[in-house]
Design a protein that fits this description.
The protein is mostly helical. Among the domains are: about 60 residues, no CATH class; about 80 residues. It contains 8 helices and 5 strands; from the N terminus they run H-H-H-H-E-E-H-E-E-H-H-E-H. The strands form 2 sheets. The protein has a 3-stranded mixed beta sheet with strand order 4-3-5. A two-stranded antiparallel ribbon has the order 1-2. Helix 6 packs across helix 7 and helix 7 packs across helix 8. The longest helix has about 100 residues. The chain is elongated and about 155 Å long. The relative contact order is 0.05.
């Protein structure tokens, strides 16, 4: 049994030519099931199309059988055989029917035929005009189709070129974004380094002494001192320590361009400073 290996092209051509399953069964010497399996394989992604093709092939087989076996009309019982020929009583022409038609009858017949010919000519002319218009429309459509194909080809080229340019820009965007992230990380690192290097040590002692390598400004410390006296967090400190705390806070506040690293020799006083500054109590 031959291998069933026809392709979709042969299948579609057979359908157009009105061939059915019988054609493939005879050509490939196979079973109907093998043909059906081959069609399902060709159209595995579209089962509905496979089923329709099988149905069309079977329909073609049915039409072809009807053409090969035309219907035979039933012979009427009145027909008789004579010398091998069949005759019907209705086929017997009486003598009056064999007589020639009269002149008037011929003229009437001629008039009717003439009218039919004229009507046919008019109908034919009308159909010719309609066909001409349809052919003209077809030519216009074909011309427009050619223009659209050319335009589509141009647009396809532009599309591919634009897509390539867009992809290239996207790659450049990614490079710029990556470089930007790296610069941001480096910038933050640099800023922190600058901040660390820009810090000025401010030493604060319980005795009330304050040491700094740059000149400081403690304006407003007296007003702040009065406010600190009222805070609960300062109730355990001596007046001198509270005054020192007020001076340190004012020095840090008045020196906006300098970042101070405040160093206390008294941890309790340092905690009070952090609390007042962080919580912005005053």
């Amino acid at each position: 049994m031959a291998k069933v290996s026809f392709r979709a092209k042969e299948l579609n051509l057979a359908l157009k030519e009105g061939k059915g399953l019988k054609y493939f069964l005879e050509k490939y010497d196979c079973s109907e099931e093998q043909v059906r399996d081959r069609i399902c394989t060709l159209y595995s992604k579209n089962p509905k199309a496979a089923n329709k093709i099988l149905a069309d092939l079977k329909a073609n087989d049915k039409r072809n059988r009807n053409k090969e076996c035309p219907q035979i009309k039933e012979i009427p019982e009145k027909e008789v055989e004579k010398n091998g020929e069949s005759f019907n009583n209705n086929d017997i022409v009486s003598e009056p029917q064999l007589q020639e038609e009269s002149l008037d009858e011929l003229k009437i017949k001629e008039k009717a035929l003439s009218d039919d010919v004229i009507k046919s000519e008019i109908a034919h002319k009308d159909l010719c005009q309609k066909r001409y218009e349809k052919l003209k429309l077809l030519r216009d459509i074909m011309a427009r189709t050619g223009e659209l194909k050319a335009e589509l080809k141009t647009l396809d080229g532009k599309f591919k070129k634009t897509a390539q340019e867009a992809n290239k820009i996207g790659e450049e965007m990614n490079k710029v974004a990556t470089a930007r992230r790296e610069k941001c990380v480096e910038l933050e690192k640099t800023r922190k380094e600058i901040e660390e290097r820009s810090k000025v040590a401010l030493y604060v002692y319980s005795s009330g002494d304050i040491e700094c390598e740059i000149e400081t400004n403690d304006d407003g410390s007296e007003e702040l001192y009065d406010s600190l006296l009222k805070l609960e967090v300062c109730q355990e400190f001596r007046l001198k320590e509270i005054r020192t705390l007020a001076k340190v806070i004012c020095i840090a506040k008045n020196s906006q361009d300098v970042v101070f690293e405040v160093v206390f020799d008294n941890n309790d006083l340092a905690a009070a400073y952090e609390l007042v500054v962080a919580e912005q109590i005053i």
